[in-house]
Design a protein that fits this description.
- With about 375 residues, the protein is α/β, with parallel strands linked by helices.
- It has one domain: TIM Barrel.
- Helix content is about 40%, strand content about 10%.
- It contains 11 helices and 11 strands.
- The strands form 2 sheets. An 8-stranded parallel barrel has the order 1-4-5-6-7-8-9-10.
- Helix 9 crosses helix 10 and helix 10 runs parallel beside helix 11.
- The longest helix is centred in the N-terminal third of the chain and has 22 residues.
- The chain is globular and about 55 Å long.
- The N terminus is likely disordered.
Length: about 375
């Protein structure tokens, strides 16, 4: 009887893990081999580690810009971040010449990261395509562009032209191995706030979901972009799973779920318990729905807290059992003496950052091994 029970239990466990393995794959059935490998490896690494990321890390830093193979993080610890954040804000709202320059500069950055074995995540501070101006909402100036650019809207064709440019660029990302570079595409972030024109008060739930679903469908199914993983990331204005999912477009439209949280991490207050609970909501949903999870943005400007890396960030990430693939801190401005979120040589948090770097839980670029499943 015991043998039979053990056998049945083993078969049930194999079946369960088989279902989970089937669930844990990109939403694009035509995803490239390298994109599928990235998804799988991020899921596996998240079981015991978290990858460290930094926005615009290799484009510029504290007091410098455009230096080859440089980042402030590398200058401190000897390795680039595992995840490099970039932005396609320059792909619209500018002259054709400037758009082309922006596309080429960013293409090189993304390809270089891939060739080194690192990972790129793309945000989109999308200039308002209807009223003009930048991505922020400005009362009496900005128009609620979402309803104009979704199917049936009067600016829908203009939006498709912008996506055509994004698609052309995505299909130009070719590594030295000849493969298309996989990237994590994170559009329309922090939509639960009102500071962006796609924010909560500027479109309905139905309009936002229509925008998300059309964007994914057009890039994937019409333009044949098969090297994107799609990341859904509100800010931190939720305390339950249902609140987190209030504008969720559906599991068939999302590869990664995440959250941006500065407020609980020292900007407004130090509240590790609340930050960790929110991150656990994200991680728990990812695990049961076959998605990746990430702490998509966080940080403490100027990092005046000399133990922030181990006493705030690391403790938040390790407060509860969670599978979080990466954490990304915001950028280091090249001109501002105070606007930076990662350390540079001589910055007061460097000793603690080195403890964070040396912790076996954290991974940087040089720790990644064949994340894209490249043939040797």
């Amino acid at each position: 009887m015991k043998k039979n029970f053990t056998f049945v239990f083993a078969m049930l466990m194999i079946a369960t893990f088989g279902v989970l393995a089937q669930k844990h794959k990109p939403i694009d059935p035509k995803a490239t081999r390298e994109t599928k490998a990235l998804f799988k490896n991020l899921a596996e690494l998240a079981e015991n580690h978290v990858l460290f990321g930094h926005q615009h890390a290799t484009e510029y830093g504290h007091g410098w810009a455009g230096d080859e193979n440089r980042s402030d993080v590398k200058s401190v610890c000897g390795s680039h971040p595992a995840v490099i954040g970039v932005d396609i804000s320059g792909f619209s709202g500018h002259s054709k010449e400037n758009i082309q320059k922006a596309k080429e500069k960013l293409r090189k950055n993304v390809v270089d990261t891939y060739n080194r074995g690192g990972i790129t995540t793309i945000s989109w501070h999308f200039n308002n395509p209807v009223s003009g101006g930048n991505f922020y909402w400005r009362d009496s100036v900005s128009l609620p562009a979402v309803k104009y650019i979704i199917p049936g809207g009067e600016a829908h064709d203009k939006y498709k032209q912008i996506l055509d440019d994004v698609a052309d660029w995505a299909l130009s990302l070719q590594g030295t191995d000849g493969a298309l570079v996989p990237v994590i595409f994170r559009p329309y972030h922090e939509f639960d706030g009102d500071w962006f024109w796609w924010g909560h008060s500027h479109c309905t739930r139905e309009e936002f979901i229509a925008l998300w679903q059309f964007t994914v469908s057009y890039l994937r199914d019409t333009k044949n972009v098969h090297n994107f993983l799609y990341a859904f990331s509100p800010d931190n204005r939720f305390s339950t799973e249902s609140q987190f999912l209030e504008r969720y477009p559906g599991d068939e439209w999302v590869d990664m779920v995440g959250t941006d949280n500065y407020g609980d991490m020292g900007r407004d207050r130090y509240d590790i318990e609340t930050a960790a609970k929110k991150l656990k909501i994200v991680s728990d949903y990812a695990l049961k729905s076959g998605k990746l999870a990430a702490f998509t943005e966080t940080g403490l400007e100027s990092i005046p807290d000399t133990t922030w890396w181990t006493e705030t960030l690391l403790k938040t990430l390790q407060k509860y059992p969670m599978n979080v693939s990466y954490v990304l801190v915001w950028r280091n401005d090249t001109r501002s003496p105070t606007h930076y979120y990662a350390p540079f040589p001589g910055q007061v948090s460097v000793p603690d950052f080195m403890k964070f770097y040396n912790d076996p839980f954290t991974l940087f670029e040089k720790d990644l091994k064949n994340i894209y499943g490249k043939k040797k």
